[in-house]
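Backbone-to-sequence.
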C-alpha cells in the first residue's frame, strides 16, 4: 500500500507497474511482441521496443514520478531514469 510507506522508501517494481499511467498517454504504443511493458522509467524496463514518436508525456502526472522524484521524461523513448542520467 503506497500511502503506508515512509516518505523516502522506494517503490517496488510491482508498485511502479500498478501506478504507471503510460497506457493512457498519447505517445504509448502497445508492442506486438511485448504487449504488457510499461513503467519505462524503471531500470528493469527502460526504453520501449516500438515507441519512437514523442506525442506528449504524462509522466509529470504520475505518482511514481512524484514519489521517486524522477527528473526525466519520455522514458519509453529515451530510456529509464538511470539510463538518462548517463
Ligand atoms: S513516471 Fe512515467 S514511465 Fe514511470 S511509471 Fe509513471 S507514467 Fe510510467
Ligand atoms: S514514458 Fe511518458 S511519453 Fe512514454 S508512454 Fe509513459 S507517459 Fe507517455
Amino acid at each position: 500500500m503506497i500511502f503506508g510507506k515512509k516518505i523516502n522508501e522506494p517503490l517496488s517494481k510491482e508498485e511502479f507497474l500498478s501506478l504507471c499511467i503510460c497506457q493512457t498517454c498519447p505517445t504509448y504504443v502497445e508492442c506486438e511482441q511485448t504487449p504488457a511493458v510499461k513503467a519505462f522509467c524503471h531500470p528493469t524496463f527502460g526504453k520501449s521496443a516500438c515507441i519512437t514518436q514523442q506525442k506528449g508525456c504524462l509522466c509529470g502526472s504520475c505518482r511514481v514520478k512524484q514519489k521517486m522524484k524522477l527528473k526525466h521524461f519520455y522514458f519509453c523513448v529515451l530510456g529509464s531514469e538511470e539510463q538518462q542520467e548517463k
